[in-house]
Amino acid sequence: MRYIWIIPALLLLLSCSGVEQNRKNIFRYNESKGIPTLDPAFARNQTIIWPVNQLFNGLVQLDERLNIKPCIAHSWEINEEGTQYTFYLRRDVFFHDHPFFPGGNGRRVIAADFVYSMNRIIDPQVASPGAWIFHSVDRLARGGMNGFEALNDTVLRIQLSRPFPAFLGILTMPYCNVVPHEIIEHLGPDFRKEPVGTGPFRFKFWREDEKLVLVRNEKYFEHDISGVRLPHLDAINITFTRDKQSEFMEFMMGRLDFLSGLHPVYKDELITRSGNLNPVYSGQIRMITEPYLNTEYLGFMLDPEQEAAAGSPVLIREIRQAINVGFDRHKMMRYLRNNIGRPANAGFIPEGLPSFSTQAVTGFTYDPDLARELLARAGYPGGEGLGSITLTTTSDYQDLCEYIQHELSEVGIRLSIEVNPGASFRNRMANSRLEFFRGSWIADYPDAENYLSLFYSRNFSPAGPNYTHFSHPEFDRLFEESLITRDDSIRYAKYQQLDRIIVEEAVVVPLYYDQVVRFIPESLSGLGSNPMNLLHLKHAYWSEPGGKTE
């Protein structure tokens, strides 16, 4: 409770109705990590995806339960071979008004706009980090451009080189959002800071590292279940305060409307040890939680040709297994995470995906005696002669790594903790310079293939997401089979086989399956939540006096 001294003053402020009564029909949140771009071609992480999802739309979208729903495409067909996707577009979707359009009015979106937008993603000169999403598209298909073809203004066809059941889910990613070619041609690189899309909100103002304002798109094409045009909010106001304590206090004083995630600054104040909202804030703050498609883990560098792994004991499978069973995940969650999230005792695929199964995949559980036995089998009884293994992390996860360090010392495994700044850490991890590292994988799309691709040998970093450089012929064979298996039940069984190989080889140390945690004022409705932690604001509205309640 290191911040308990501020609570009486905060409670007094919360009990005063002045801030609430003067609330405007605006949603305010803080992005402490900053937003480098608003161009969907570069929406590679959550900080960019959240505002981009307010400004742009794609062919299809995810609902709160991650079901794929129509968006700009009102319907679609997939041929029997699973290689040809035909989309039928709405006729009432328009780009936001902009002076570069004739008359300043946004023009109608047509199929050729999607051909342009998707080709832009794979254009080497654009250098989008999302180019990988179209690897299964047949670039040599007859007709169209690189496998994308506008049959007419309202019909789009995409040709794949092989079946890929996860492809429709990939099309929900912001990389696939439609953009207007004439605005990009006029603005060039400045499109990142003056975006024009089709979304429920349109760009208004951005002073970088200070404030970003998006306003209601009065011509938006979607309606709520009552037939009222979305969105309900008039504006979104995003600030960029770096300090998490300041962000927390702004929220508690009613100057922000949203806190996301669990941070040491406020976790013990807002959440009880059992993982519930502190009863002190009942009736003032609402806490929203659900499983999050995010697996937190520790990864080993398994490529002996890399300097970081040369001569390292982590190349020995029994050492990796000993680390996996040498600490108590349940205790870690209770004391460091206030029981937000679940201990990762069932492999790498997280809870929330249909192929997740505690019966089909048995992960690691705490067993210090087995850890000592595994050390002895590896030739290091009691840890003698093992030396120290360097675990690299960022400051946000230092406490968690120090807990594991202490637990493993009890069984004879010595860890050295190295804390790197975020940018340096990511660079070193991507370039295979870390012996043992803290990682996380948040789903790009709702299919377990996204998680298993981290262990496919053709995805070695830095070109791909295989940061461990794990190489296993049987894993590769099964993975490739799963990519062309259209029957969901058979494909899920293959996913479970693959996850069991990851466990058997102890490629990583799964720590926990994360949980979406959101704190909002009690008077905010329609925000909801979802297992990918996407921020959907088009349905949000205020129910207190001074707020619009369409």
The number of domains is 3
Query: Measured on Cα atoms, how large is the radius of gyration?
Result: 25 Å
Helix fraction bin: 25-40%
Biggest sheet layout:
7 strands, mixed
CATH overall fold name of the largest domain = Dipeptide-binding Protein, domain 3
Write a structural description.
The protein has helices at residues 7-15, 18-21, 46-55, 111-122, 167-170, 181-187, 244-252, 267-270, 317-325, 329-336, 368-377, 398-409, 422-430, 449-452, 473-483, 488-504, and strands at 26-30, 60-62, 68-70, 73-78, 84-89, 148-152, 155-159, 201-207, 211-216, 235-239, 259-260, 285-300, 342-343, 388-393, 414-419, 436-442, 508-521, 524-525, 541-542. The chain is α+β, with helices and mostly antiparallel strands and 550 residues long. The radius of gyration is 25 Å and the shape is globular. Helix 12 links the parallel strand 14 and strand 15. It folds into three domains: 4-30 and 211-284 and 522-542, 3-Layer(aba) Sandwich (D-Maltodextrin-Binding Protein, domain 2), CATH 3.40.190; 57-189, Alpha-Beta Complex (Dipeptide-binding Protein, domain 1); 292-514, Dipeptide-binding Protein, domain 3.
List the keywords.
550 residues, alpha+beta, D-Maltodextrin-Binding Protein, domain 2, Dipeptide-binding Protein, domain 1, Dipeptide-binding Protein, domain 3, 3 domains, seven-stranded mixed β-sheet, four-stranded mixed β-sheet, 16 helices, 25% helix, 20% strand, globular, disordered N terminus
